[in-house]
Write a structure and sequence with these properties.
The protein is α+β, with helices and mostly antiparallel strands and about 90 residues long. It contains 3 helices and 3 strands. It has one domain (about 1-90). It has a 3-stranded mixed beta sheet with strand order 1-3-2. The protein starts with a strand and ends in a 7-residue tail after the last strand. About 15% of the residues are buried.
């Protein structure tokens, strides 16, 4: 379980290969978009513990479910989604 606010890791590629730089930039843009979307949803939801599923997130942000899974897997390592707590003291 992750604590709110979520941070979605960006790509750290800084090499000279233009194709890899483009893919890294696209990945980082998707990560930022997902982070913004999830933090807004979490903030507006009054529940302390919340679950978000990749299949539900994907159409809301205009990405494929596989892309959402690829990017968010690094946040919580779940195959179907992630669980978030608004109260960091409640994390164990």
């Amino acid at each position: 379980m992750k604590a709110y606010p979520l941070y979605v890791p960006r790509s750290s590629y800084r090499g000279s290969d233009p194709a890899k730089r483009r893919r890294a930039a696209e990945y980082s843009a998707d990560a930022a978009r997902l982070e913004e979307y999830l933090n807004a949803r979490i903030k507006s939801n009054p529940n302390e513990v919340q679950q978000y599923f990749y299949g539900v997130i994907a159409p809301d942000v205009g990405m494929s479910e596989d892309r959402v899974r690829e990017v968010l897997y690094r946040v919580d390592c779940g195959h179907n989604g992630l669980t978030v707590s608004k109260d960091p003291a409640g994390l164990s």
